[in-house]
Amino acid sequence: MKTSLFLIFTLIFVLICCLSTSAQNNAQICLPKGAVARIGKGTLGEIRFSPDGRKLAVSTSLGIWLHEPNTGEELDLLERPHTHTALFAFSPDNQTIASLSWGSRLTSNKYNRYVVKVWDTNTGEDKAILSGFRLPINSIAYSPDGETIVTGGAHYCNSVRLWNAQTGENIYTSRMKSKLGTFVVFSPDGTTFTSSGDDNVAYLWDTETRIQKFTFVGHTKYVFSIAYSPDGKTIATASGDGTIRLWDTITGTHKTTLTSKIEAIMSLTYSPDGNTIVCGNTKGEIQLWDTRTEKLKSTLTGHNRKVKSIVFAPDGKTFATASSDNTIRLWDSTTGKTKVILTGYMEIHSAAYSPDGTIIATASRDKMVRLWDVQTGKIRKSFTVSKNVLIGKIAYSPDGETIAVARPFDKILLVNTLTGKRKGSLNHFGLVDKIINVIQDREYSISSIAYSPDGKTIVSSLDCYTHEKGSVYLWQAKTGRQIRTLFKGQGGVRNVEFSQDGKKIIATGDWKEKTRVWDAKTMKKLPPTHMDKTHVFKRILVSPDNTTTAQVEHNYTMVIRKRETTSLSE
Q: Are 267 and 260 in contact (CB under 8 A)?
């Protein structure tokens, strides 16, 4: 009896521990009108604790997700339909957020492709627009008094700019040498700010006079991140050379160097009490350094790709890390243990229903194929099909045993749905073809894949967007042997598939909006009918039982809706 009770309590304890660290993958907050489920939360950007410490904000291509900072529970989604990237910053009073957005619809200047919008965190109302960016920016930061915003440019259009946070007026601009991007951060008292670039140097600026006070030279590679100590007396810079250098903000002198001896350091921050520096490297490791002894206290593992961002909660008890592995981890700063793992962030490129309609397979930018349960929205299985190359279009075989996944620029991989192992491949280009493509500057993308209803044949299309050309190929599904080239010539091909009865192959969606049709048995060209022209050119997937539809949205999430009785061909 005692043994049974002990086992029961042990099981309960284990379940509680598992629940406390389980992945939070619910993306069903603020669903679009008519939607029954959403798959994915958008691509993962930056993380910030709100100034009052009550929320952890995670920016994505869909908007900003707000989480309870201890449990990871999703509280709300601040949708931003024109968000370009996930770059954002909270104002010190918690009332506004500044975030990067597309600018073409918001300003009269056609050259201002991007803007920073300052908007109310409660109502979503735009308060100010900072315009004048031809290319994306690399960082945004508020001054401690909330009156000024500093931005750092990116990609050959680099500059450090100061803006009036209330009016959006550009106060000051200084062009930088950096080509990769400029990182900027304000000092705790707001009297200075620091910037960095790809010249391996950091600069300390006087906020009032806009004069560079100090130049911090010593790193041998790009400076990825900068952090002020809470008292403002020290600046820490993290570099691709694997070191953290500490600088005196009063004299501009180098104080000491902390050497990780492993990988490039991508991110760092100070704990609120100033006693610890937490940094993350390209391997996904997190290091905690004691600022008093200048010794490494511990190394934390869990992420398997680079750590892009690290932030401390205002109370210092928790810090959060965001990684290129598309997860966020909340850590106990005292024990170094993971409290919660947040998942569901990805860039979905394409999707396909399984033949029985119970699963949706998605292909994502992270090279993963995921199989989702249509009813619950939860992941049943996931596997990597291409380690070094991105994956694009995806299709299910009629028997449900194979998934065809396109590596956009060269081949289609055939993968076993149960094991995730590769069964074969459809190679569009040989070595000679690849050399010719390089010489003639031809950039091809596999734009569509489809199985015949009997599963014996696969049709694929290529879109050569550099030369406005396209092609359509027919393959033997079992052997991967190319049967023939149906079309190769002027006009790109965006979509190709078999008719429902399998008698026709239909290709459409090129720049000239031309539809091409072939007899699937004789391969002879047929005149397109009205139904042929509307049959393929749509981005909406219909479930096999015709009860639901699924669509990959512009923000790289997928929305599932109950199917309407109206036509889906528009």
A: no
- Category of 523 on φ-ψ map: left (φ > 0), alpha (ψ -120 to 50) or beta: left
> For residue 85, with 0-12 CB atoms within 10 Å meaning exposed, 13-18 middle and 19 or more buried, which class applies?
buried
Please give the order of strands across the beta sheet that includes 411-416.
Answer: 394-396, 402-407, 411-416, 422-427
* Structure tokens given for 22: 């389980």
Strands (E) located in 54-147: 56-60, 63-67, 74-79, 83-90, 96-102, 114-120, 126-133, 137-142
Could you tell me which residues come within 8 angstroms of residue 325 by beta carbon, excluding any fewer than 6 positions away?
A: 284, 303, 304, 305, 366
Give the pLDDT of residue 567.
Answer: 44
Look at the block and give the residue holding tokens 């050569």.
464
Q: Which two tokens stand for residue 192?
A: 């200075």
Q: pLDDT of 8-67, one tens digit each?
A: 444 433 333 444 454 455 777 888 888 888 888 989 999 999 999 999 999 998 889 999
Cα separation, 340 vs 321, whole angstroms: 11
Please enumerate in sequence order all residues whose Cβ is within 8 A of that of 147, keeping only pairs 6 or more positions apart, or say none: 164, 165, 166
Q: Is 12 helix (H, G, I), strand (E, B) or coil?
A: helix
- C-alpha radius of gyration, the chain, whole number: 26
Per-domain residue ranges for the chain? 428-537
Report how far Cα 231 is from the mean position of its chain's Cα atoms. Answer: 34
Question: Is 413 a residue whose pLDDT tops 80?
Answer: yes
d(CA 343, CA 38): 14
Does pLDDT of 289 surpass 90? yes
Rounded to whole angstroms, the Cα distance separating 191 from 175 reads: 21
Q: Which helix (H) or strand (E) holds 300?
A: strand 295-300
> Which has the closest alpha carbon to 237: 201, 211, 210?
201
Coil, helix or strand for 142?
A: strand
pLDDT tier for residue 106 given thresholds of 50, 70 and 90: very low
pLDDT for 148-169, tens place per residue? 999 988 755 568 889 999 999 9
| Third-level CATH fold of 428-537 | Methylamine Dehydrogenase; Chain H (2.130.10)
d(CA 52, CA 213): 32
Render pLDDT for 66-99 as a digit per residue (tens, 0 to 9): 999 988 999 999 987 666 567 899 999 999 999 9
**Six token digits for residue 337:** 């243990």
Residue 508: which pLDDT band, with cuts at 50, 70 and 90? confident
DSSP 305-354: S-EEEEEE-TTSSEEEEEETTS-EEEEETTT--EEEEE-----EEEEEE-
Tokens found for residue 28: 């069903």
Is residue 464's pLDDT more than 80? Answer: no
Rounded CA gap, 373 and 57, in Å?
A: 27
∠ CA(412), CA(413), CA(418), 5° rounding? 145
DSSP 11: H
Cβ atoms of 473 and 428 closer than 8 Å: yes
* Strands 495-498 and 482-490, sheet pairing: unpaired
Among candidate residues 456, 473, 483, the one with its CA nearest the CA of residue 399: 456
